[in-house]
Amino acid sequence: MPSVKVRDTEPFDVALRRFKRACEKAGVLTESRKREFYEKPTWAKKRMKAAAVKRLAKRLSRENRRTTRLY
């Protein structure tokens, strides 16, 4: 869990902004959203496989687009 020490002359808003940035960097919010509900292992595998297929299709379309340009 990220922590922020508030300096003597620092306004609360600035400290809060630093804390939010530290949480974002550590991935606290994304991790909590991911763990909000239980995900069965089969669902996780299915999600990962779908992401892999999407990445592959994206890469292939990029390569195909790159080779068809003849100018």
UniProtKB/TrEMBL annotation:
UniProt entry tagged with the keyword Ion transport: no
GO CC, any one term: ribonucleoprotein complex
Alphabetized UniProt keyword annotations: Ribonucleoprotein, Ribosomal protein
Record-annotated membrane-spanning stretches: none
Claim: Nucleotidyltransferase is one of the keywords in the record: no
InterPro entries linked: Ribosomal_bS21 (IPR001911), Ribosomal_bS21_CS (IPR018278), Ribosomal_bS21_sf (IPR038380)
GO BP, sorted A to Z: translation
Entry's Gene Ontology molecular function annotations: structural constituent of ribosome
Domain of life: Bacteria
Pfam family, one: Ribosomal_S21
Family: Belongs to the bacterial ribosomal protein bS21 family.
Protein name: Small ribosomal subunit protein bS21
Species annotation: Hydrogenovibrio marinus
Chain's gene name: rpsU
